[in-house]
């Protein structure tokens, strides 16, 4: 661990200065795959800015130079990245560049503070966290952030455990009973991960719920019901199809990775496939989609389009991917994660888009200042409300 931290510090310095060789660039991005180094990398970025910035205009020149060096590194490394690793590489490379630029803008604004930036910091909101409520078949509710690690309950031959890293795990032990239903639900500002009895894993986004039999089996099928948004990594079982039921559709798979967004405040249900194949059924409409495709169901039909999956699964990876995202869609993501209400002034256009990446671990003020740096909108925070004007 200590050796990796030393190596990442050395390589990051060369990356920021634009002196890294191809081999050193490859080594740097290989180390970024180690999630335990995330905090170290963020600290390196912040230190780089602090040590080299001054309250004069040269600050922005320094930021531009570091940003350009990272972009150059991306161009050098991109052809050598294997397709299977590219989404991860792209996320980290983009996040590196944006954290430096966002951090630089923050430093510059601190030295030349505006009334609006001061107001955003004064009314700041902490990011969301890992948390959920588990409702057992007998009606008992367990708030998982308060529950101790270890065995939580045993229902219908299934043991329910909370692991040390905060994951919920179901394990079948002996004969199981049917019609013992559990519900895992998250509030605004919460996410949670559950491993179902068949080994399938589900990441639940904010303001969402997943309902299922404790043994997962209904008439030979693996059945779950979803409201809100979740990412599914389904264990392969050709004999038992896995079906996700939402208010307007069913998604059937045998074993695959996919994301479903079924929030009631979104105009349609979006099913995005990353691996394998899925069948989306809504009334008489049926569509089979391939990896990289998204099925959008507005209740009047299902349309399929090729999409950038990174834009869809950003929340699972702890990011806001705002690149070419409808502004109001982006702000709904922000509102759910920070548990705030968004109020629009009439001056805000309906057809603007955001851009870039920023971590969901940042406080609300950092995210809003990052979006505001585009010059498209201005924010004011009062309590739990964000007021947006042109």
From TrEMBL:
Domain of life: Bacteria
Keywords from the named record: Membrane, Transmembrane, Transmembrane helix
Positions of transmembrane segments: 92-109
Stretches assigned to the Protein FecR C-terminal domain: 320-388
Gene3D superfamilies: 2.60.120.1440, 3.55.50.30
InterPro entries, A to Z: FecR, FecR_C, Ferrdict_sens_TM
MF terms (GO), sorted A to Z: sigma factor antagonist activity
Keyword Transmembrane helix: yes
Domain FecR protein, chain residue ranges per copy: 183-279
Any Pfam family: FecR_C
Keyword Transport on entry: no
PANTHER family: PERIPLASMIC SIGNAL SENSOR AND SIGMA FACTOR ACTIVATOR FECR-RELATED, PROTEIN FECR
Protein name: Anti-FecI sigma factor, FecR
